[in-house]
Design brief:
The complex is a heterodimer of chains A (about 80) and B (about 250).
Chain A (H helix, E strand, L loop, with lengths): L7 H16 L20 H15 L5 H4 L5 H11 L2
Chain B lengths: L7 E4 L5 H12 L4 E6 L3 H13 L3 E6 L5 H15 L4 E4 L14 H29 L2 E6 L2 H5 L5 H21 L4 E8 L12 H9 L9 H12 L10 E4 L6
Parallel strand pairs in B: 1-2, 1-4, 2-3, 4-5, 5-6, 6-7
Chain lengths: ~80, ~250
């Protein structure tokens, strides 16, 4: 699957859907400023699973040192938008 | 014995010895699907599959070398694709190449560490994700009494088996919050192909050091593995269960 034509809106909705699925939260609770750990109740294993799910969905590689900087939903969406092929 | 109903089990090195006994124990306990891996002995693998089917399980033998991490990931993927889940992983595949440390070749060291330790790691890495999604699973690593007490002539084997204990405890801590339990079983001197080459003199000396006064058999190890995989052990994780007739306490 090529992601080259995905527009930012689609990225946002896909990221939200991955987060909702992984963390078992409603998509309406997921705001760009939501912190995975503080607002959405994620733990370190959840973060790893989220990163892996996003890597698969968007065919990007998110190195550990970059993943550490992804703290909010907005951070994740921005990362995908800047790095997707 | 409904505890393993619907469960999907992978036993590496399952064509003979302790691995076969473990696979068969799961089949007899009602596991839905038992997959064994093997690397060389096709005939033994097919014989085991027939035994498993005879015990009422869906069974298959998959040929791959656990020392190949990519093959490990593919094998787990295929199991999850075919059966929808993976509930129990038994890391049993192992090799021993004995020799005094001065004479141990790099390739023999690597072979034992890659198969016994890295193979278990690669399969745990691959299986932990589906187990996390399922919010449950059991992993049992076959270590060895020599990993606990050391053994002259088995530096690499003992190192790999001691490494498995550290791996077991670390992963037990990492995955506990997802209801994935990780334990080790530590067999002593068990009568299998791996110990059959030892001469009678050595065999007698070793038996003299075993309070129960005899070698163990593969079924006695499988019993411990089955226990740790099942609900009876639901509050046990990070444990190393010795099955050694008392030779090391």
């Amino acid at each position: 699957m090529s992601t080259s034509t995905i527009d930012p809106k689609v990225v946002e909705s896909k990221v939200k859907s991955i987060i909702a699925d992984q963390l078992g939260v409603g998509e309406d609770e997921i705001k760009p400023e939501s912190s995975f750990i503080e607002d959405l109740g994620a733990d370190s294993l959840d973060i790893v699973e989220l990163v892996m799910a996003m890597e698969e969905e968007f065919e990007v590689e998110i190195p550990d040192e970059e993943a550490e900087n992804i703290k909010t939903v907005g951070d994740a969406i921005n990362y995908i938008n800047t790095h997707k092929k | 014995m409904s505890g393993f109903k619907d469960k999907v089990v992978l036993v590496t090195g399952g064509s003979r010895g302790i691995g076969r006994a473990c696979a068969l124990a799961f089949a007899k306990a009602g596991a839905a699907t038992v997959v064994i891996s093997y690397v060389g002995n096709e005939a033994a693998a097919q014989e085991t599959v027939a035994l498993l089917q005879g015990a009422g399980a869906k069974a298959e033998a998959v040929r791959f070398d656990v020392a190949d991490a990519t093959a490990c990931a593919t094998a787990v993927d295929n199991i999850v694709k075919a059966h929808g889940r993976i509930d129990v992983l038994v890391n049993n595949a192992g090799v021993a190449v004995d020799g005094l440390v001065m004479r141990v070749k790099d390739e023999d060291w690597d072979k034992q560490l890659d198969t016994n330790l890295k193979g278990a790691f690669a399969l745990i890495r691959a299986a932990s994700r589906p187990m996390m999604k399922q919010r449950g699973g059991a992993i049992i690593n076959l270590t060895s009494v020599v990993g606990e007490m050391g053994n002259g002539g088995q530096a690499a084997y003992a190192a790999s088996k001691a490494g498995l204990i550290g791996l077991t405890k670390s992963v037990a801590k990492e995955l506990a919050s997802r209801n994935i339990r990780v334990n080790a079983v530590s067999p002593g001197f068990i009568g299998t192909d791996m110990t059959s080459h030892l001469d009678d003199d050595l065999r007698q000396k070793m038996t003299a050091g075993i309070p129960l006064g005899r070698l163990g058999n593969a079924d006695e190890v499988a019993g411990a593995v089955l226990f740790l995989a099942g609900d009876a052990a639901s509050y046990i994780t990070g444990e190393v269960l010795k099955v050694n007739g008392g030779m090391y306490m």
